Amino acid sequence: MMKKNIETNPEFASEVVLSIPYCYYLHQRGQLGKVTICNGMKPFYYFADNVVEGFSQRSLDNPTALKDIPNKWLHHSHGVDGVIDYTEWETPPYKEVYRTDIFDDIKPFVIVNNIFNAPWLENGCLDIKSLYDIFTYLTESGYKVVYKRPENKEFILDQNEIMTPSSDITADVEGIGVITDYELCDYFENVININKLWKDTDLDYSTLNLNLFAETEGFITTSGAGSQLCAYFGKPIVMHVTRGREVERPGYLTHPDCFYKKLSNAPLHLIYDDHKKWNGDPSNRKYDELNQVVKKVFGEKK
């Protein structure tokens, strides 16, 4: 049987939703040949026999980056928002494959997945106050928290990320002064910065994420910024949706065939908080609603 060789280096979201499920589909049928992917992504292709990490940069040129992949566009197929072609599409069982006991000492934990604070995102990240409220509730309810907000140094980048200047999430806290989100973690005994956790292991960054995601109780996440990977593990997801197609097009995240649901049918709890309605005033954000949903989804741990 002729096997198909794949070369793919799109943005991370497209790789997670489009490239990996196609490669796994081929693998399940004995049709997957050599796979050439981005540096650092090999753990995501654990199922492939011949994997080469041959790309040192991601590309937003979809016709080229996804030339071997049937789905060329993440956001829709045949005009249906959030729905793609699932004819040759099957997701690998990351939750089962990457289960581990190496993080048993921090269980039960919830992953808070925040976005890189790039200026063009118009502060679509979870800010210091909202993080404080989330951390406080979860830790007082018997959970530990693993906080993830990449510095864009942990993995290779696409063109947008390369052009984005580094920027911390900060706030001037009364009685303390200006602190970053990373420093906020240090004020909580049971909140763990994923990058500090990474330094204490001998795992590569991709395997660390897959292991943690397989063992978490669930996710609190911004839209985009790796939320697609959260949807692979069948765990509850509280998603704060602030911008992009997810908030602009009704049905994008709620269609029964939305790719977020197809990835593992994870329970998805949505807080729509359109950044265009904030008018530059943080008090207009729906953080109170976010907190209420967090409390409903992650009740007190007995």
Mean pLDDT: 89
* Quantity of strands, as a count: 13
Written as H for each helix and E for each strand, in order along the chain, the element string is EHEEHEEHEHEHEEHEHHEHEHHEH
Give the termini separation.
54 Å
Largest sheet: 6 strands, parallel
Describe this structure in words.
The chain is an alpha/beta fold. It has helices at residues 12-28, 62-65, 94-97, 128-140, 159-162, 181-185, 194-199, 205-215, 227-230, 245-248, 259-262, 287-297, and strands at 4-7, 32-38, 51-55, 76-77, 80-81, 109-113, 144-148, 170-173, 177-180, 191-193, 219-222, 237-241, 268-272. The strands form 4 sheets. The chain has a 6-stranded parallel beta sheet with strand order 10-7-6-11-12-13, sandwiched between helices. A 3-stranded parallel beta sheet has the order 1-2-3, covered by helices on one side. The model has no long low-confidence stretch (mean pLDDT 89).
Give a quick rundown of the structure.
By secondary structure, the protein is of the alpha/beta class. The protein is 29% helix and 18% strand. The strands form 4 sheets. Strands 10-7-6-11-12-13 form a 6-stranded parallel beta sheet, with helices on both faces. Strands 1-2-3 form a 3-stranded parallel beta sheet, with helices on one face. Strands 4-5 form a two-stranded antiparallel ribbon.
Jot down its keywords.
302 residues, three-stranded parallel beta sheet
Produce the secondary structure layout.
Blueprint: E1 4-7, H1 12-28, E2 32-38, E3 51-55, H2 62-65, E4 76-77, E5 80-81, H3 94-97, E6 109-113, H4 128-140, E7 144-148, H5 159-162, E8 170-173, E9 177-180, H6 181-185, E10 191-193, H7 194-199, H8 205-215, E11 219-222, H9 227-230, E12 237-241, H10 245-248, H11 259-262, E13 268-272, H12 287-297
Helix pairs in contact: 4-12
